[in-house]
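Q: What does the assembly look like in three dimensions?
Context provided by user:
Components: two
Sequences:
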Amino acid sequence: MVNLKSAIPAMILSFIVYIVYTGSIDPYDLLTGAIVAVIIGLLTGEIVIKDPGKAFDPKRLYWLIKYTIWYFLVAEVKAHVDVIKRALSPRIPLNPAIVRVPYYVETDYAMTTIANSITNTPGTVVVDIDYGRKIFYVHWIDAKTSDPGEARKMISLDFEEHARKIFD
Amino acid sequence: MKASELFVLVSIIVFIFSLAYITSLGGLGQLPPVNVRLLAQRYLELTWNPLKPFMSSSGYESVTAIVWDFRGLDTFFETAVFYGAIIAAIAIYRGVKITGKGRTTGMSPIARTITRLSIILIPTVAASIALHGHLTPGGGFQAGSVATVVVVLIIMVFGRKALIRKGMTKARILLFRSLGLLGIGFTAVAILLAGIILGLNAYIFQNQPKPFAPLGFPKLYDGMILGGSLLLFNLFEFIAVTAGFTLVLLLLSLGEEEVRGVVEK
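A: Here is the predicted structure of the complete assembly.
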């Protein structure tokens, strides 16, 4: 049997994506969007959403919006400036290494948020994950430390705190 | 810059300019004659033309109007060729059991989580391409191709067996593909059938009413442009193409050891 509670957040996401992609709010698009959203939500809700209660928690939504803005406008810009400086500097100061970065969140969505946040900022890339021991292996353009705890503070602590508030 | 890089750069520039020069001289065959351009003008003029209701199609998108209305029969046979190719693929793999039993490892948990989200996003975008095909560039085949991306992702990231365990069995995909094709066939003859029943003149592949053939698919409803037969063709083609590609991908993802037993018989 289809899990209706899981289906509803999936439907809402599908409907928003349909309207944004179509780029129009004519009655035809709203109608077809609603039909498509209901079908896709019913088919995929169970696979995509395990805890539908979280999807309607306004606090989580607030943190999600706050994190999105902070991530793209502050964290990304800082990392870009840092890498641009390195690229333009005549000495090209590099100190690359792969370091262990542990994480302490429970859900897959929170873990993925941290991993993709690390990878998407220039200078750090998650190259592998040890799912059992909860460790990312991160390639770092300027490895200031090889201590996992210190590396976590420098690379992923901000991401992790937000990811926990949004998804865990 | 190294000499070899310079050589590559210069040869690309020389190639582009000489190609442009040859084309302008007519060296690659004649440019389209003026009467062919008139045909294009006619298509553009008649795709959506409320002043000429008997000659125009039922959507804004000229390509969709040509593909499914002006030249609809061509597309029908192309779809039949695609259908035949998939039948051939199934015939080659006859007797091979495709089961969801056994373990799948798949990719990392990061890839799995992101792919899970794309299971909502990609089919939604595909549906928009199909259902908007008579208004903006897109249509059934394009939408089916987009939707197939999610199948590729599931097979690569979760494993083929996971796809089957989630209910995408060969029999079910075949059913959907047949439904899509039946839908296309039915849409092609629907107006003709209605004409026979009502005792009116009608044609195959009729979309809008013609002189002395008053039946047609709905073009407008309450200000919404429904696109007549274009919408139905796009929708059914979307289903048929998605199911067809999915089936082929499922067959291609079989390992040699699974096919071996049947081949050696």
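Follow-up: The beta strands of chain B are 220-221, 224-225.
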